[in-house]
Amino acid sequence: MSGKDWRFIDLDLIQLEKLHGIEEALLRSKKAKPTIIFWRADRFVLTLGYFAKAEDKLNLENCRRLGVWFVRRITGGSVGPLDPKILSYSLIVDEDNPIIPENIEKSYELICLGIVKALRMVGLQAYLTRMSDVLVDGRKVSGSAQTRVLGKVLQHGFIYLDLDLELFRSLLNTDKLKEKVFSLDRRVSWVNLELKKIGKKALDVQEFKPYLKKGFEEALKVKLLDSSLTESEKRKGEKYAKKFFTEEWNLNRKSFTRNQQ
After folding, report:
1. Which end of the chain is more exposed for a tag (fewer CB within 10 A), N or C?
2. Residue 163: how many CB atoms within 10 A of its CB?
3. Tens digits of per-residue pLDDT, 139-169?
4. In this predicted model, which residue has the larger pLDDT, 250 or 258?
5. How far is C-alpha 27 from the chain's CA centre?
6. What pLDDT does residue 259 have?
7. Residue 67: left if φ>0, alpha if ψ -120 to 50, beta else—which one?
8. Hey, where are the domains in the chain?
9. For 174-184, how does the pLDDT look when each residue is reduced to its tens digit (9 = 90+)?
10. How far apart are CA 31 and CA 249, in angstroms?
């Protein structure tokens, strides 16, 4: 595998907790090659930024009543919905890899360019704004978050192909977020809604995957080679996933430590 050959792994449906365990296994690995993973949450679930306070962002009573919970990630940002109709990705690469800019803003621009290119391939006039948000017609259809830890870059994000905006809204803390909740219709959209506006047919996740893969290849100037997790990565992923199932982590943000084994 050359420096411009990266692993491409399609995990498809997966529990969000287990996905984060796999990400951590790759972050802690000394042997993992540069990797891009495609995945989608196996159920409607909320992803919460590392520093966010759950009680400030979410209506926890509604979450419990509707049976929708959240998983805290190790990257920053706020809260967002994930489900099987939302295509997500994770990119893990050594921090000193020459393809990834040292400047964080420029690295966001480069990686998110892959998403922009994919959306343009299907006919949408997408563009990047606010460092990591991809917009179509002024509304967000994709967001990403990044952290640099253990000598690695982890960036992950989502592309809303379809979105249950009303369910998402009902899970937010309207007392704290106020205008952000009530303005969701103006600020957020999804790919198939935007395709419908221009008279194009809807795309499902499987149909969109090749566009996103090609978009990343063109943006990063790499070749994504179909691969899979090693047995060691699977085993360690299961181990690291355990904390993402716990309230200690999700409600209280137990510290993410560099020396955890």
Report:
1. C
2. 22
3. 999 999 999 999 999 999 999 999 999 999 9
4. 250
5. 16
6. 47
7. left
8. 5-250
9. 887 676 666 78
10. 27
Structure tokens at 112: 């998110």
How many C-beta atoms surround the C-beta of residue 239 within 10 A?
13
User: Given a cut of 50, is residue 261 above it in pLDDT?
Assistant: no
At 17, the amino acid letter reads E
Total-model pTM: 0.94
Residue type at 225 in one-letter notation: L
90 phi and psi, to 5 degrees?
-135, 135
Neighbours of 63 (CB within 10 A): 17
DSSP codes, 169-208: HHTB-HHHHTHHHHTHHHHB--HHHHHHHTT-----HHHH
Instruction: Give the up-direction half-sphere exposure of residue 103: CA atoms within 13 A in the CB hemisphere.
Output: 5
Inter-CA distances, 104 with 79, 134, 168, 176, Å: 21, 17, 29, 30
For domain 5-250, the CATH superfamily is: Bira Bifunctional Protein; Domain 2 (3.30.930.10)
What 8-state DSSP symbol labels residue 58? B
Q: How many CB atoms lie within 10 A of CB 1?
A: 11
Q: Strand 133-136 and strand 126-129: pairing?
A: antiparallel
Question: What tokens appear for 52 in the block?
Answer: 């966010």
pLDDT digit string, tens, across residues 6-27: 999 999 999 999 999 999 999 9
Q: What angle do CA 234, 240, 242 make, to 5 degrees?
A: 110
